[in-house]
Amino acid sequence: MTVNNQSDPEIHISEEKLQKLGWILLSLAVIFTIIGAVVSPLDELGKPVLLLPEVKAVEDYRRSAQTRGSFFTVQVCAADSPACC
């Protein structure tokens, strides 16, 4: 990196340094993508779960409502039906 003139400053960066910077940034992007794919929590369908506080609260509520709903099944039948004892 050189500066030619104090009155008209131009910064020159060699193409080799720009290529190295590009490879480093690309490598970091790939590494973080792999890390994110490995450590991200998944839901029942295999989709990634967002861990924002608001989203987590809604997901927790939804899951608890589904769990509670599965415990309370109501059987409706006629009074003279033999299935209802």
Describe this protein's structure:
With 85 residues, the protein is mainly α. The protein has two domains: 1-39, no CATH class; 42-77. 52% of the residues lie in helices and 5% in strands. The protein has helices at 15-39, 53-71, and strands at residues 2-3, 11-12. Strands 1-2 form a two-stranded antiparallel ribbon.
CA-based gyration radius: 30 Å
Number of domains: 2
Helix content class: 40-55%
Largest sheet: 2 strands, antiparallel
Give the helices and strands as they follow along the chain.
EEHH
Q: Could you tell me the strand content as a percent range?
A: under 5%
Number of contiguous helices: 2
How is the secondary structure organized here?
Elements: E1 2-3, E2 11-12, H1 15-39, H2 53-71
Antiparallel strand pairs: 1-2
Task: Summarize the structure in short.
By secondary structure, the chain is mainly α. The protein is built from two helices and two strands. The protein is rod-shaped.
